[in-house]
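Working notes for the structural subgroup meeting. M.R. asked for a predicted model of this chain before we commit to crystallization trials. I am recording the input and output together here so anyone reviewing the notebook later can reproduce the run.

Input as submitted:
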Amino acid sequence: MPTPQAKIPFPRPSSHPLTSTPAANSSNPRRPTPTLSGACASDASAPASATGGAVMVGFFRSGNLASRVFDRQFLSPRPGATVNTVRQFYENLVPSYTIYGIDCPDYSFRKFTDDGKYLVAFSRNHQDLIVYRPIWLTFSCHEECDSHDLPANAERFDSFFKQLYSISLASSNEYICEDFFLYMECHQYGLFATSTARSNESSVTEGAIHGVPSIEKITFYLVRLEDGAILDEKAFCNDFINLAHSIGAYLYEDLVCIVSLRYQTIHVLQIRDSGSLVEVRRIGAFCREDDELFLYSHGQAAQGSSFLPGIKQRLLSFIFRKTWNEEPDQALRVQHLKKKFYFHFQDYVDLIIWKVQFLDRHHLFIKFGSVNGRVTRSTDQNLAFFAVYNMETTEIVSLYQNSSEELYSLFEHYYDHFHANPQNSLHEKFISSNPNSVHAPDQLRTIKSKASSPSQFVKKMMASLPYTCQSQSPSPYFDLSIFRYDEKLFSAIDRHRHCTEYPIKFISVRQPNVVKFKIKPGSDSGASDSRGKRISSLFHPFFPLALSIQQTNMQPTVVNVHFRR
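Returned structure, recorded in token form:
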């Protein structure tokens, strides 16, 4: 299949960060000036006149917390680097104590909200939602507390977390999808999902894609986390939405897009201030609100599959116009169309929507892939196209293949803008990435060196697009300008990983030989058989507090609490 490279660049509305071109940065015409993400970024651009101050900063960065406080009093950070300077304090504020196998309820702990106010958990029968509020451990001693072990009543889960409520979300034949959770910080709303069992033997229905399984009922619930009130719900019947890791939905400001894989429809919902879910747009068979009315009024209402879906029409039109304009010679244009467009016409028609995200309030970033990939993880390795779709004009603005180096260049230099959300928490804006950290490219070069070919490397990097909403922890302990760690064992990305029998080390970037703290999942009995065990980590967005959760088949879950004592 040919590679239709777009001549039209990414959408450039004034409100979207992708509007700025690399040439606009005077320091480097090919690469945008990185935002200040860490101390290294701010120190690298320090003027010569600040040499004395830099030496003094280095003197006071002795690992002593008190000296850092004095440093903060008489040394002002550079403009725009205040938060980065404050985050350097976490080099001294680390989890220094671990309670192994803490006495806690047998729940499935999902994650901390990005503002750190709530810890979300689900019951083991996937019926109930339980919400906790983090509290700090306090206890008193008759003598010096540091020389004593924690009292027995302090080594309990309720010493760190206060349960606010437990509510039932799912009915008897429905189950909560524990991988799905989106948080709207401005109103402290949480979006959850329940579903019935998945059926691979789905009946043939008009408009449904053959080969995509069916779920009898999928329900999205909007919950106010402050008191557990269920504000609204939205149900989809006999449909399939990929709920794993929140892949099938994306939250941007007050808008949520939900992708129906079975009916190839993008549902755009708005979360009102009152807490109601209102469908404001539906993109699929029709792109405009009055398209169906127009067809019926002109007697062109299709029976069966006479018409291609509206979004597919837009895709084919873009590829046709692009192929048409590639050949300026009128005599050769027909042959060029036959070779590059009509020969692969059925392949283009068979493409289906796999995943969608918002770029801004008006543009969607859509991944089209082959239906033969089915609903499996292997779809990332198949042929795929990425389209930028304007919801207002209903036009496809640009199209890239998953091996496009042009798209990878945009992804590498503007990574933050592929998952930017104006209402993200302050802490989430400082997640380390290639454009805003001088340390992230080192890991990228390591991945690139292991790839067998440049094309394979580009496809591997593009497999993560469109970006999965709220999938990374904003904890400063994952900040690559402060700590180094083995990303094969631990990562800011919200995923389960295979358990290791050795502690996971967090090493200081400033002092490469100094281990600041360790995270050891599982029991405190030393090395053990790690086969069949999976671990996940929940780091608080700003407290030196973390949970490491070890899951083993047919055995109770082991939860460790790591905190600063």
